[in-house]
Specification:
alpha+beta; Beta Polymerase, domain 2; cca-adding enzyme, domain 2; eight-stranded mixed β-sheet; 24 helices; elongated; RNA-binding
Length: 512
């Protein structure tokens, strides 16, 4: 073990928030050992801005609660911890742990219970990476280095403490942590880790709770180096263990969304981790929509059912919380609304709670080369920067263009129908014409018709054989009770007595 001066490692109390100093001071005054440990110390030495700080002590969780009272809450079953609230800050306080006398593990070797208290030396041996195993005591201004961690930081090497295969079996999530730290810190992974880190080993992640895997995936999405870690997930075989139906390839849409997420984090903007899940699951969602549309479902119903199916399938790997599922489905549904909005609903749509997320999603699709957006991402981008009067003009112009497009579509459809009716049939049939569709005859044709003997039903006895007028012809048809079209005029329904209707009841309703 090396005891190093804090100033030599680039550490000072001026870099620390008052919340962590308050926790360390309170435990020290109560007679316990207390150190700052983990990623906070590592990031300070690398010149980074730590997100949070963790403390470690020889006080048990119940003793920590005695020190801080109502400010402390004990959590965890597999790994019991104390959460101490200092103002608005939350400090995680762990107790020194020792190797268990009889480890409670799963069939694959994963530790199920880890609550054996020990000394600081024993606690060091339980930590995963050397760069996370430095103990900083701010008031004594010393750093305890048990494993040449300072040297690993200088050499930018990510090294596991102990046998890498055994450490991965104890906690398979360490495989995710390995890639996360390598991408975030731009460190080289130690050769001993690479020797055992094979795609077959990632099967151990099946033993990890889907809830915990979701939490770890969120750390990957929000660390600010998402675009760097995605290829590593594919290379080491972890992609297939995290994402059920997403092909192990980085599309232009996924890559652009990853870069956009990293940029927002680097400039201090907030992000919703569920947004990237919406990006990842977009293609499986579209494929599932096509399945339901082919079965005859309405588009809205197909989208709703496809969203449920895709998220249910993903829950077998990472269980997305209900509120995040709702967010994802609303972003997907917003795509169809933004694509073809009704003119009278455009302004209301721009004020929708999910408009911003849906718009960002559509704009990313459009910039990634997705032509199905029809340029509406750019249209909405311009619309948001217009004044009230300019927005009205833009909506009016959009309405005219929309009507023109519909007319063109209708003309194309009607033209297609007309073309189809002009196609010559394979079998020509003789056209039967009724009395009303009879072609007009010329004078010569009419004269020859009058001189010719009448065909069909004969005249009454004593009637002339030629030149029968139209009235006589109708009279003959009425006597026979059937015309040339085959209608029976003697049918009872045509002979029933008509009843005069009282129109007042039609206008004002029945009176009683």
């Amino acid at each position: 073990m090396q005891t190093l001066r804090a100033s030599k490692c680039g550490l000072s109390t001026a870099q620390l928030p008052s919340s962590i100093l308050d926790v360390i001071d309170s435990l020290t005054r109560a007679g316990y050992e207390a150190y700052i440990v983990g990623g906070g110390v590592r990031d300070l030495m690398l010149g980074l801005n730590p997100k949070d700080f963790d403390a470690v002590t020889n006080a048990t969780p119940s003793q920590v609660k005695e020190v801080f009272g109502r400010r402390c809450r004990i959590i965890g079953r597999r790994f019991e911890l104390a959460h101490v609230y200092s103002g608005r800050e939350l400090i995680e306080v762990a107790t020194f742990r020792a190797p268990p006398k009889k480890a409670i593990t799963s069939a694959s070797g994963m530790i199920l219970r880890d609550n054996n208290w020990g000394s600081i030396e024993q606690d060091f041996s339980r930590r995963d990476f050397s760069i996370n195993a430095m103990y900083y005591q701010p008031h004594k201004a010393i750093v305890l280095d048990f494993c040449h961690a300072v040297s690993d930081i200088k050499n930018k090497t990510l090294r596991l403490l102990g046998d890498p295969l055994l450490r991965f079996e104890e906690d398979p999530v360490r495989m995710l942590r390995t890639l996360r730290f390598a991408a975030k810190l731009n460190f080289n992974i130690d050769a001993d880790i690479l020797d055992v880190f094979q795609p077959e080993l990632t099967q151990l992640l099946r033993d990890v709770s889907p809830h915990r895997l979701y939490d770890e995936s969120q750390k990957l999405f929000t660390m600010g180096h998402l675009n760097r870690v995605l290829p590593m997930l594919i290379e080491f075989g972890i992609w297939k263990q995290l994402f059920a139906d997403i092909p192990p390839q980085i599309s232009a849409f996924i890559e652009r969304a990853a870069k956009n997420t990293d940029q927002r984090i680097q400039i201090g903007k907030t992000i919703n981790p569920a947004f990237f899940y919406a990006v990842l699951l977009w293609e499986p969602f579209l494929q599932r929509c096509d399945v339901y549309l082919s079965k005859g479902l309405a588009p809205a119903e197909a989208r709703a059912q496809a969203g449920l199916d895709v998220l249910k399938r993903q829950a077998t790997r990472t269980i997305i919380p209900r509120f995040a599922e709702t967010f994802i489905r609303e972003v997907w549904e917003m795509q169809s609304r933004l694509l073809s909005p009704k003119p009278q609903q455009i302004e209301a749509l721009s004020g929708h709670a999910r408009f911003r997320a849906g718009f960002d999603f559509m704009l990313l699709r459009e910039k990634s080369g997705d032509e199905t957006t029809l340029g509406m991402g750019h249209w909405w981008d311009n619309y948001q920067n217009l004044s009230a009067d300019e927005k009205e003009k833009a909506i009016s112009l959009y309405n005219r263009q929309r009507a023109r497009t519909r007319r063109k579509t209708a003309e194309v459809d009607s033209g297609a129908k007309n073309t189809s009716t002009q196609i010559e049939p394979l079998v020509k049939e003789t056209e039967s014409r009724g009395r009303r569709t009879r072609k007009p005859r010329g004078q010569e044709e009419q004269a020859s018709f009058n001189d010719a003997p009448q065909r069909g039903r004969g005249p009454r006895s004593g009637a002339p054989t030629g030149g029968m007028d139209r009235g006589s012809e109708r009279h003959n048809r009425s006597r026979d009770g059937q015309d040339q079209g085959g209608m029976d005029h003697n049918h009872p329904i045509l002979k029933r007595k008509r009843v005069q209707r009282d129109l007042t009841q039609v206008v004002f309703g029945p009176t009683q």
